[in-house]
Specification:
The chain is an alpha/beta fold and about 200 residues long. The chain is about 30% helix and about 10% strand. It has a five-stranded parallel beta sheet, sandwiched between helices. Helix 1 packs across helix 6. The relative contact order is 0.16. Mean pLDDT is about 80; it is low at about 1-40.
Length: about 200
């Protein structure tokens, strides 16, 4: 197994700023007055990266808010039926990382049974979901997933963090109110109806 080293710097104090929950945020995350979980409201596909250290906390916050959330790291926990227990990682298919140097090796790696299984598990979850959340930092796969979701007319949101490359076409995810800057803002925004923003050709 090849250990993945995160290219992202750790935040001082151990907690990423966009995960710090304010009093308003705690209220938004509570499913009831006693903090109990409410009934599931959205079926969410959380598009992110293995290298995103905040992904587990974001996942937990969305579930605490009462949503069903697919976890690509643990596909069988919540989502469509018959998902594999373990999430897909390229190191299980190409431990020598040849596909990072060769397009032909990458094409062959896509045919590997584990790659096919991993793709099918995520694709089934994408079809199952009615809402997509892209959590930065993330890679090309997450952006491909979000593009597919936008084309399918599913609700699309983004959780932005500092230090990422700006993308002009981000409003294709539904407008300029869909990108959020914190988990509490995201949870609050998910409570609102999905409406496009005037001025964009969407």
């Amino acid at each position: 197994t090849v250990a993945l080293r995160s290219p992202y710097k750790k935040h001082k104090g151990g907690t990423c700023p966009h995960l710090r929950i304010t009093a308003k945020g705690r209220a938004a995350l509570s499913g009831g007055p006693d903090g109990s979980e409410g009934p599931p409201r959205r079926k969410i596909y959380l598009a992110s990266s293995w290298r995103n250290p905040d992904q587990p906390a974001i996942l937990a916050a969305l579930r605490k808010a009462g949503h069903e959330v697919y976890d690509f790291r643990n596909p069988s926990v919540q989502g469509p039926p018959a998902a594999p227990d373990a999430g897909f990682g390229w190191e299980s298919v190409d431990p020598g990382r040849a596909m990072y140097r060769s397009a032909a090796a990458y094409r062959e790696a896509l045919k590997h049974p584990l790659a096919v299984q991993g793709f099918n598990a995520d694709m089934a979850a994408m079809i199952w979901a009615d809402t997509f959340v892209m959590a930065q930092p993330c890679g090309r796969s997450a952006h491909l997933e979000m593009g597919w979701a936008a084309g399918q007319g599913k609700g699309c949101f983004a959780l932005l963090v500092d230090g990422q490359k700006p993308e002009l076409m981000l409003p294709t995810l539904g407008g300029v109110d869909r990108p959020c800057l914190s988990v509490p803002e995201l949870v609050e925004r998910l409570e609102k109806p999905d409406q496009p923003i005037a001025g964009y050709l969407l």
